[in-house]
Structure formats: C-alpha cells, structure tokens
Hints:
Blueprint: E1 4-12, H1 18-27, E2 32-40, E3 45-54, H2 56-67, E4 72-82
Antiparallel strand pairs: 1-3, 1-4, 2-3
Amino acid sequence: MDTRIALIGIIVEEPAAADRINTILHEYAPYIVGRMGIPYRQKNICIISVVVDAPGNMISSLSGKLGMLDGVSIKTVYSKVSAGKDLDSCAG
C-alpha cells in the first residue's frame, strides 16, 4: 500500500476542543510518526504539529475530521516524495 508523508498543522483557539482532538488523533495513532504541541499562553492558543505516514485517503480523513471541529484551524502539507524513498540527509 502506498503511503505519503504529511504534516498537519493545528491551531487550537478553543481549549475545550483539546479532548476531541486527542480522541481523533488516538483513532489514527498507527499512522502518526510524531507530534509536538506548543502552548502559546500570550495568545491563549495551542499549536500542534502532527507528522503522519499514511495512505492519502487516511490523511484526508484525519484532516477533515480535525477541520470540522469548532475552534480549530488546520492545514495539511504533503511531501513530494513517496514514503518509501530513502533520503540521504534532511539538513540539505
């Protein structure tokens, strides 16, 4: 099965959405490579980055579910290379 690497950027403007976000991310846990959350207290928001390696339809489904949540903004960026390709260095 072909998979793609994607980065899902999530901005949480409504703290009450955190539980729903975590529930959705838990459903897709087998596809999540890593995640990082940053609280931005001065603006009362949280920023979450989620890296996934999944079939395109799974990435779209995850992005769609997250994007439908009130108080949540998301953007998904897809890698141009397939997930199976070895890269010598990411540092350039």
